[in-house]
Design brief:
The protein is an alpha/beta fold. Helix 1 runs parallel beside helix 2 and helix 5 packs parallel to helix 9. 39% of the residues are buried.
């Protein structure tokens, strides 16, 4: 079944970008040439749209239609401006709680995290423009529709969001094993933002250097890590416990 959040064909994708559609990623056929294809490549660079070159077999799996060497994933949601969202939350009088995702790449993990975020009253989720999982049909399904209820912001780099949060009086806490503190040692009963790292690399070391605090989950078994969506749920419900 074709994903309803896809468009295909070089001309169609060019027109969608020029019309202001929110495009998460474009898959381009490796080795393809031609004037129109070059025009698309140029437009993707100009508009800073994430893209990758893939074998034609991948494009054939993405759609049964005549893709002409290009398939785009369109986001089914409108993304929020980080600055506007943070100001709105602060002015509402709510105790801010934000979630920063440092390149979570699996759409099902992403969807599960969004679902838990909605259940724990997270005010907004911040992701990077490039490198993370897209908001697509799988994300919607796994989030049980929560993707339409939790504001999501895109930034050039997660560092941008960290600095803005700190400047706004919001404490930034990294969920990382590179600390002696457990999440039960940290106070979440104040304005805060939690950073979760990618499935394979965790949080970027350059980001760990600038956070306000770090916390880890105590792991009592032999396996040294939890699935990121499960770990995220544990952190968010510790916030709920402290704030209730």
């Amino acid at each position: 079944m074709q994903d309803q959040t896809q468009i295909f064909g070089i001309r169609a994708i060019i027109e969608a970008i020029n019309a202001g559609e929110t495009i998460d990623k474009v898959f381009l056929q490796k080795g393809l040439k031609g004037e129109l294809f070059t025009e698309l490549e140029s437009l993707l660079r100009k508009k800073d749209v994430s893209s990758s070159y893939v074998p034609v077999e991948k494009l054939n799996r993405l759609t049964k239609s005549n893709h002409q060497g290009a398939v785009a994933q369109i986001s089914p949601i409108e993304f929020h401006e980080l600055e506007h969202l943070v100001i709105e939350v602060i002015e509402s009088g709510k105790m801010p709680l934000f979630l920063l995702l440092d390149q979570i790449s699996d759409v099902r993990n992403f969807g599960a995290i969004i679902r838990t975020a909605e259940c724990t009253s997270v005010n907004g989720i911040i992701i990077q423009k490039k490198g993370g999982a897209p908001v697509n049909g799988d994300t919607i399904k796994t989030s049980a529709g929560a993707v339409f209820k939790v504001p999501i912001c895109k930034v050039d780099h997660i560092k941008d969001a960290v600095f803005y949060m700190q400047a706004s009086g919001i404490k930034v806490i990294a969920a990382t094993e590179k600390t002696n503190n457990t999440l039960y040692d940290v106070s979440f009963n104040e304005p805060c933002a939690i950073i979760m790292g990618s499935e394979d690399r965790g949080i970027n070391p350059s980001i760990l250097k600038i956070v306000d605090d770090k916390a880890k989950l105590p792991l009592l078994g032999d396996i040294e890590s939890l699935n990121v969506s499960v770990a995220c749920g544990a952190f968010l419900y510790e916030v709920v416990r402290q704030r209730l």
